[in-house]
Amino acid sequence: MIRLRLFGRCRIYHDPVSPVLRAPAQIGWEAWFRSIDLVTPQELKGEELLLRTRGWWTVEPKEVAEVVKKHGRLIIGEEGELMVEFADQKSVEALSSALSERFRDQVLLSP
Amino acid sequence: MHFLVILLNHTLDLFHGSFQDLIYLLDSEPILNQVQHKVQNDGSGSMKSIQDEWGHDPSVQSMRRVFSYMEKAQQELLGRSNISFFDKRLRSIREKALELFEQVWPLAVRKGMITSEKDAAPFYVHCLARALGSAGVEVPEELLPGDEKMIHFLKETLP
Fold first, then answer.
1. How far apart are CA B143 and CA B125, in angstroms?
2. What is the dihedral angle through the alpha carbons of B83, A75, A54, B3, rounded to the nearest 10 degrees?
3. Residue B85: which of A67, A66, A97 has the closest Cα?
């Protein structure tokens, strides 16, 4: 398995940036007839984190996800990084080409 | 409002973290004004089209050029050093280069060695070469910017 991080370009400065899940989302509950104190940490999946780049990258993340999923699997790395997992180097090359074709240099794969 | 807070944090993090000494290139006020403007426009919560709201701002344009020069210089050095952009070592090499660059940059600014948008790139390239060296990839000196004053300064700053 090969894992590479997925970078987009910052919408303001156009430098490559990649989201990192620093802490899980804290999900709580509110009800009509009772109070609920329970708060559960909720890890995001790779695609969920990618979709949260909407408005921060120069490209639409849904379109990025469509392209990525044809060649690899979106995952969260051990340190919360947005990564793509590939079966082999051939898939890496294929996705890199597909990203260039669709988004020019706006979406990049990198360690 | 929540969007504003996140966006402000995003903007400020870029500067206060890694590039705080590049602030002198920027007048951040126009950026913040645009952030507020953007929030007003997006009051509905929708942000379907991804437009370049910041591209007309001279300070943003300047920063974009700084990063662009750095990226181009990085690509050239990695290419000439035969390092694949998918090489696993690149992550730690880039992290080390950034660490060195952030060490060097404020001192270079204080010494008046930074006079244009193009000046960050050669400093970064030297830092990247050091990081490559730490990872066992020796970069021939002829691939590095040859400014004597800069080289002397870097030898003093990064022993």
1. 9
2. -110
3. A97
> B15 to chain A, minimum CA–CA distance in Å?
11
pLDDT digits (tens, 9 = 90+) for A40-68: 999 999 999 999 999 999 999 999 999 99
SS3 content of chain A, % helix, strand, coil (to 5): 25, 30, 40
Coil, helix or strand at residue A73: strand
Whether the full predicted model's pTM is greater than 0.90, yes or no, is no
Q: Which residue range(s) make up the domain with A16?
A: 2-110
The tokens describing A91, both together, are 């898939």
Residues B126/B150, Cβ–Cβ less than 8 Å: yes
CA–CA gap between residue B112 and residue B91 (Å, rounded): 31
ipTM value for the complex: 0.90
Locate the chain A residue with the closest alpha carbon to B51. A58
Nearest CA in chain B to A12: B54
Instruction: List, in sequence order, every beta strand (DSSP E) within A1-111.
Output: 2-9, 16-17, 25-28, 39-42, 73-76, 82-86, 107-110
CB A56 within 8 Å of CB A17: yes
Residues pairing with A8 in the sheet: A17, A107
- To the nearest whole Å, the CA of A13 is away from the closest chain B CA by 5
Helix (H, G, I), strand (E, B) or coil at B54: coil
Interface probe, candidates A6, A15, A90, chain B, greatest B C-beta count within 10 A: A15
